[in-house]
Design brief:
The chain is mainly beta. Helix content is 10%, strand content 36%.
Length: 172
């Protein structure tokens, strides 16, 4: 079941989180979106210049990997996590036309939940193999079972699309 939640963080928490992420010294890293062996499967990759995004990895494989890991505290509390699996932010630059990325799952861990948190409002979106589609609306979180394939996109109406992705085991 795919569940959206608007105004996920209170206004103070959201402003603090977003202001920190967008501060000029916040560290970003360039990563590929789709592995090279899959280029021919996705029409947008006829032009590989779209195969990148900026990311910031907070947590992976049981290890905090960011000095900004503490920013996740409101999320871990509100999502009632038993275990955090991974957390990262993706920044996708604006493109002339919407570019959809490939459908994927973030991991294959049983009983895992994925949460997508939108940090800015734009015409980019997350689409699901179920046919559901959620446009980027700031301070909205969409959570779903990790086994449901999903895809992100770029945007055309803002400088970038900014999304956080969290994978976790939910508490009882």
């Amino acid at each position: 079941m795919i569940k959206p939640c608007e105004n996920f963080l209170d206004q103070y928490q959201f402003k603090n989180f977003k202001d920190t992420i967008l501060y000029k010294s916040f560290p970003w890293f360039t990563t590929e979106i789709i592995l090279e062996e899959n280029f021919d499967k996705y029409n947008f990759l006829a032009d590989p210049k779209y195969n990148f995004q900026l990311t910031h990895l907070f947590y992976i494989k049981g290890i905090p990997c960011s000095e900004f890991f503490h920013l996740l505290q409101p999320f871990t509390e509100k999502l009632n996590m038993d275990a955090l699996i991974s957390a990262k932010i993706n920044l996708n630059p604006c493109t002339d036309t919407i570019v959809e990325h490939s459908y994927h799952v973030d991991n294959t861990i049983n009983n895992c939940t994925t949460a997508v948190f939108y940090l800015n409002t734009n015409n980019g979106y997350t689409t699901f193999e179920t046919g559901d589609k959620f446009f980027s609306k700031e301070n909205t979180l969409v959570k779903f079972p990790t086994h449901i394939k999903h895809s992100g996109s770029t945007c055309t109406d803002e400088k970038y699309r900014l999304v956080m992705n969290i994978n976790y085991i939910a508490g009882n």
